[in-house]
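> Could you send the Transglycosylase associated protein prediction when you get a chance?

Sure thing. Input:
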Amino acid sequence: MTVAGIVSAIIVGLIIGVLGRLVAPGKQNIPIWLTIVIGIIAAFIGTAIARGLGYADTNGIDWLEILTQVVLAAIGVSIAAGAYGRRGVTR
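Output:
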């Protein structure tokens, strides 16, 4: 992956994180920086999955790749919200 590819993945990751947070069910009590980090990680993993399955390089916008990234971000945000929410609970 080139430097330009990494920078674009980070920028796309910012957007993917926010979209993942919007798609995730329920209220997420996690900070925005964690949402952004999850989005960046989801962008990298989603691209790797799309390349591995062979649908990353299509003509025009790679909708399936973006969908994969958003779904991964939504899953990541949901998991982080559950873990982050339990952090402050004492019994």
